[in-house]
Task: structure prediction
Amino acid sequence: MRLWRLEMKAASAHVRYAAVDNASSHAVLHVFRALLRQCTYLPDPAARQYMHGHIVSRFRDYHPRSTLPFSSQRHKSAVLVQRRLPTLLRTARRGLVFLRRANNGHTRHLGKILSMTYGRVGKRRHQLLKELKIVDVPVDQAAIEELSKPGNQAVPHPSEQLMALVKSQAKRPLSHFSRSNTPHPKLEIPEENSWGRPMPIKRVRNFKRRWYAETLDRIMPPLPEAEWTRLGMRASGQSPWEGHVARRKWAGNPDDEEQRHVDRERVQGDVGGSWSNPHNITPRYMRRLWAKISAQCPLMRPNAAKKSGWEVLWGDVGGHDTTQLVLGHRGAGGFDMFEGVDESGKVVQSPEHI
Result:
């Protein structure tokens, strides 16, 4: 009896998704395979694995087989899938162009994929933030009384680990981060409102909630120690880059070669700005990208020296910081890069040319 019900359930699921025609299914499958193929060409092994799982997870949410028994319950109704399908296909094709540009060496696109892979932006960043949201258990009666005070109820309470990370990141140079905002280690609440009266408890709660939300939006969550060490070795050159992944050969007919070239030019395009100036993907180029990401990735572990608190380490790689320009004297001759020009910036002619 139970097996019969499961068979009827599976049959009804396929009937509900009959509204999606074969042409749409073929287009979805074509984009899905193209996305997975581009993932295999990414120059970072961790990025290849992460983007593959990310794409499969996004497509699986709208896959008809997810309605079968013993499978994920994240499926959508057939009407919703049919209505969202054009928008989803456009989003997938934009993602395909994004991956192609990253594989061609466009810094902005490849840097965004590395930021997603190592949890600086996107879904994985929120997954890494979950551990920082865990509230510390009160250790004594004084802590319980502090939480019971008016204004402290029904508001988020940052953990000791989160506050240690906020204080450490606030001391870092702003140029090291892709996010321009620096977290504020301390919340300052006025004692009086604009009327000169004591600040209402409701506004105090709102101040705390807003500060907590802004803090979570600005901080960079820590990476696991194994991944943090591996990224640092990549950035410093201790773990060499494996090189490019071999591209698959064209499997179409010889007559389709001209059309394939036209499609490639249409996808890549000739547009201005950084879009039309790809960078050659070399070991040095990859080390610079990894160093930029590593400088934004902290590692947190219990402080063994103090036997309490947390120790925060940042992935600084010496010799790969391109955010600052340092000028120095060479001997007694002054700044060499300004040699041969006057105060107005004009080139000083030698006596031989006068």
In short: Confidence is low (pLDDT under 50) at residues 13-19, 66-72, 265-275, 319-334. Residues 136 and 159 are 5 Å apart (CA to CA).
